[in-house]
């Protein structure tokens, strides 16, 4: 199963694969060079295809749980001042996605979308300290009665050149459902109240829609 954001790119990649190999077959007479070009283009196409995979995730719905919004590795856990929406201290958990991770963004909690905003910006490497404030990004806040308001932020990186965000203010969303996509890159930050007991630790690998970030008592 593939994400809808990838169909156009996968189609272009397939056309390029065919064109390159037709040219190679026509103008290159060395058999092993032609085979090498075929294998390289197939490998590149495979990498593009696997990037847009969208595996089905059976999220265990629970309004007291905050689940990982993306696949990747927890690279930051720290208290920070969140100045866009809350304007106070928050506990931030950052999940970094490598190019081989699934790049679908999922709603970490179910509830009503209270805030959703896109910000154009730079393309610093995702782990840069200023990436959260200066890179292209989207900020979404979802609220339910038990968890309260949870903010998550999609952040583009050096390779990510487009963020897709489906969250619309006022709509009700289901925990673990598709919230967006980051093409070729990067990281998602989750902002929780200070003192929230976490279920993850630094360098832990998580799965979007499955792994618990926190339990709200």
Protein topology:
Blueprint: H1 7-27, H2 31-51, E1 65-67, E2 72-82, E3 88-96, E4 104-106, E5 111-119, H3 131-134, E6 137-144, E7 148-155, E8 162-165, E9 172-173, E10 178-183, E11 187-192, E12 205-206, E13 212-215
Antiparallel strand pairs: 1-13, 2-3, 2-12, 3-11, 4-10, 5-6, 5-9, 6-7, 7-11, 8-10
Could you describe the 3D structure shown?
There is one protein chain. The chain is of the alpha+beta class. The chain has two domains: 4-51; 65-215, Distorted Sandwich (Glucose Permease (Domain IIA)). The chain contains three helices and 13 strands, in the order ααβββββαββββββββ. The longest helix is centred in the N-terminal third of the chain and has 21 residues, at 7-27. The chain is elongated, with a radius of gyration of 20 Å. It starts with 6 loop residues before the first helix and ends with a strand.
- As a percent range, the share of helical residues equals 10-25%
* Main sheet properties: 8 strands, antiparallel
| CATH C-level of the largest domain | Mainly Beta
Shape: elongated
At a glance:
It is built from three helices and 13 strands; from the N terminus they run H-H-E-E-E-E-E-H-E-E-E-E-E-E-E-E. The chain has helices spanning 7-27, 31-51, 131-134; strands spanning 65-67, 72-82, 88-96, 104-106, 111-119, 137-144, 148-155, 162-165, 172-173, 178-183, 187-192, 205-206, 212-215.
Relevant terms:
217 residues; alpha+beta; Glucose Permease (Domain IIA); eight-stranded antiparallel β-sheet; three-stranded antiparallel β-sheet; 3 helices; 13 strands; elongated
């Amino acid at each position: 199963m593939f994400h809808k954001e990838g169909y156009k790119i996968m189609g272009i990649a397939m056309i390029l694969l065919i064109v390159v190999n037709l040219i190679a077959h026509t103008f290159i007479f060395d058999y092993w060079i032609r085979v090498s070009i075929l294998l390289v283009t197939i490998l590149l196409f495979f990498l593009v295809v696997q990037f847009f995979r969208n595996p089905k995730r059976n999220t265990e719905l629970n309004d007291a749980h905050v689940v990982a919004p993306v696949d990747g590795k927890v690279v930051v856990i720290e208290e920070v001042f969140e100045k866009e929406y809350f304007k106070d201290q928050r506990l931030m958990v950052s999940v970094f996605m490598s190019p081989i991770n699934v790049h679908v963004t999922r709603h970490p909690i179910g509830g009503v979308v209270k805030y959703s905003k896109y910000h154009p910006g730079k393309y610093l490497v995702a782990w840069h300290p200023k990436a959260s404030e200066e890179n292209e990004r989207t900020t979404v806040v979802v609220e339910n009665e038990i968890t309260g308001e949870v903010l998550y932020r999609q952040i583009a990186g050096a390779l990510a050149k487009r963020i897709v965000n489906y969250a619309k203010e006022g709509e009700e969303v289901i925990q673990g459902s598709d919230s967006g996509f980051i093409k070729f890159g990067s990281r998602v930050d989750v902002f929780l109240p200070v003192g929230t007991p976490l279920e993850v630790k630094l360098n832990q690998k998580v799965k979007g829609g499955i792994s618990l970030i926190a339990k709200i008592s």
